[in-house]
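Entry 14. Ran structure prediction on the chain below.
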Amino acid sequence: MDTIDHILIVDDDRGIRELLSAYLEKNGLRTSLAANGRQMRAELEQAVPDLIVLDLMLPGEDGLTLCRELRASKHRNIPVLMLTARSEETDRIVGLEMGADDYLTKPFAVRELLARIRSVLRRARMLPPNMQVSEPSEMILFGDWKLDTVGRHLLDADGVEVALSGAEYRLLRVFLDHPQRVLTRDQLLNLTQGKQADQFDRSIDLLVSRLRQRLRDEPREPRYIKTLRSEGYVFSSSVTLSGGAA
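Output, structure tokens:
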């Protein structure tokens, strides 16, 4: 029997919470509801959801603050789909920079929300076949870093853990599985975001920027991710699996 996906809806509008909950549950999902950050934390302590639908414009702590908090916590790997009444590109970009996996502007069709939820869940759980490493491994070594592919933890030279969002992890895996190869933006979008790729044409550049920050990679003289003008990006560091070289 398949496990029912659990969605946590965080929105201060009771009507929206109840509408989304009714529709998602009608379509085979389980939901929990929260009106603010305090209630969201309480729900997370009760049960860890498979995905969080998070409103940006919340009273008190807004969605960006809560998303940033999630990405620095033990719940960092939970996918986040952010909702907002704003439509400006800067708001969308900030949401992605804070670690949101997808972004939907109000008003929206509930059918589109359901499709986005399912798409984000698929991306979070599966690596495309051409992203798989050549042999099973729990640790990937590159430069001064180690990536634990089971716990999805990035460790620096001192063994200190650096938090990665789901999108950052997927992008890093693509680079590590294709070192020394030029990857275009379209290829990276397709590998990391699937069918939703065309909706965020600048998201790869944002993800690369975020990943460089995590890797402490200097953009002007990068050690790991190099930009090739008019072509894309290349991961220039050598990569080693725990069981052999890649």
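The CA atoms of residues 57 and 63 lie 6 Å apart. Will compare against last week's run tomorrow.
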